[in-house]
Amino acid sequence: MNPLLNVTGVSKFYGNRIGCKDVSFDLYPGEVMGIVGESGSGKSTLLNCLAGHLGPDTGAVNFDTRIEGMRDTITMSEPERRMLSRTDWAFVHQHARDGLRMNVSAGGNVGERLMAVGARHYGEIRDQATDWLSRVEINADRVDDRPSAFSGGMQQRLQIARNLVTGPRLVFMDEPTGGLDVSVQARLLDLLRGLVREMNLSAIIVTHDLAVVRLLADRLMVMKDGHVVETGLTDQVLDDPQHGYTQLLVSSVLQV
Amino acid sequence: MTDYNFAYLDEQTKRMIRRAILKGLAIPGYQVPFASREMPMPYGWGTGGVQVSAAVLTPDDTFKVIDQGADDTTNAVSIRRFFEKTAGVAVTEATVDASVIQTRHRIPEQDLRSDQILVYQVPIPEPLRFLEPSEVETRKMHSLEEYGLMHVKLYEDISQHGAIATAYAYPVKVEGRYVMDPSPIPKFDNPKLNMAGIQLFGAGREQRIYAVPPYTDVVSLDFDDYPFEASKADHACDLCGAEDSYLDELIVDDAGGRMFMCSDTDYCAGRRKAGCIGAQGVPYQEDVA
Question: How far apart are CA A252 and CA A214, in angstroms?
Fold first, then answer.
């Protein structure tokens, strides 16, 4: 099997300071990878480099495009990259308001990606939007409400629906459960796990919450000060951490 | 002659504006930035249109100004006087006699010829502005032809009102490429954007000029199941009886009395002169105020 995403030697510097240094990995179709680490460890920098929001200073991010096979998304032209990011890629922000249009109704938010790739039939767009709202457990009668009238958890679910409506193959998630209370987190994780399995999505999840990766991720990458210090299967890394920092991280989790 | 340079602006400024106009004509619908000048009128009163008019006027031109279709409103009268004074050009109220027509919010009912120029006053040239506040982002969307967002606006209209409720400044796609704000003309006028005359759009405060060359394909955006409709009040003009012109609705007393009349005063007067009478009209007489 060919990898969906092949990352080699990605580095990003902010002046003399390191954002992330020499990161390489392969991601296979249907695989979910977690990136954990403390604040400032370079997780989000790495994710933004992979998703094309930031230009890395060195390295290559090869993505298996539907038509042309493996392409380096860093050197491809901007229109191509933006096309990818609204078809085959999805990006779920930590704060739903960064990823939603707050002054556009829920249906319009979900429909935007459809219209961006050329859908021009109102009835069909609306049917798909309503269908997706129900898949993320939002009542169909909320389709014309604005996201500002939604709770935090609903906004996050709406953001997920908006991203998945075009059937992407790779989802980038930046702390998708950050800022939600635990019961809402649990429901969201349940939902995400279902969608990932059902749609055979590949995903890269950045989080500092080890419970999230335990539930969702097949594989884990631990970052510290911009470097990857440990990688492996999730259960293996969490149950038998080798690196000193990973041991610290795992033992820092509060047991209830 | 007057103490002003011809048409108020200095020659270098007019030259700069003409360059922007030529670029706009070469790239239909593309917003060309230009160094908008301070004009002796407030922003919002047509400073962009006035600068474009000043740059295209020649001493032989005949100038007409309309405001919401009318030749006799404050804005139209003052701009007409402005160019009478600073350029000394002939002015007219008749659409057929004019070679340059500056307009606010309407396209004349009378079809324009290829030797006529229509200059629009534009308040906000960016059609995507209300959905995407960032200028950097909207420019990128134009350059990459990412116009999905424009349909989100129409989608919102249908979901809230059951039909596309945008009645003016209805977005159009020019020559299959740029999405353009046709200035706040009623959507009734949108089909007329395919015309023989040159159309120039000037936005003074926003410092943009754009243009639609003659016989350019201009398509109003819509959905397959909610096609574009050029709507107007379902009535005939009460003065001249015209059923094909865009109408203003006037409240005439405190008892709910109302009448509809052509917003294009020249068109209405011309019809009445020719003997057409509407439901509340009186036969045409010269010099009736």
Answer: 15
Residues of A in contact with B224 (CB under 8 A): 120-122
Q: For chain A, list the domains and their CATH numbers.
A: 5-252 (3.40.50.300)
Where do you find CATH 3.40.50.11310 in chain B?
Answer: 11-146+168-220
Contact of A11 with A20, CB cutoff 8 Å: yes
pLDDT band at A256 (very low <50, low <70, confident <90, very high): low
Distance CA B46, CA B53 (A): 10
CB contact under 8 Å between B152 and A104, yes or no, is yes
Measured CB to CB, residues of chain A less than 8 Å from chain B are: 78-79, 82, 101, 103-105, 107-108, 111-113, 115-117, 120-123, 125-126, 143-144
Q: Which helix (H) or strand (E) holds A112?
A: helix A106-116
With a pLDDT cut of 90, the percent of chain A lying above it is 73
- The answer to whether the CB atoms of B151 and A120 lie below 8 A apart is yes
- Tell me if chain A has a CB within 8 Å of the CB of B159: yes
Nearest by Cα to B102 from B61, B145, B143: B61
Residues 232-251 of B with CB under 8 A from A: none
| pTM exceeding 0.95 | no
Say if B224 is an interface residue toward chain A (CB within 8 Å): yes
Contact A116 B148 (CB under 8 A): yes
Is the distance from CB of B153 to CB of B166 less than 8 angstroms? yes
Mean pLDDT in residue range A38-65:
93
pLDDT given at position A253: 83
Instruction: Collect the ranges in chain B with pLDDT lower than 70.
Output: 1-2, 286-289
Domain B11-146+168-220 has CATH 3.40.50.11310: yes
Nearest in space to A123 (alpha carbons), one of B228, B224, B151, B165: B224
Task: Write down the pLDDT at residue B287.
Answer: 60
Compute the distance between CA of residue A244 and CA of residue A222 in angstroms, rounded to an integer: 11
The verdict on a CB contact (< 8 Å) between A112 and B160 is no
B222 phi, psi to nearest 5 deg: -165, -175
> Architecture of B232-289 per CATH?
Roll (2.30)
3-state secondary structure A117-167: CCCCCHHHHHHHHHHHHHHCCCCHHHCCCCHHHCCHHHHHHHHHHHHHCCC
Tell me, what's the pLDDT at B288?
53
Q: Which residue in chain B has the smallest CA separation from A116?
A: B148
Distance from CA of A98 to the nearest CA of B (A): 13
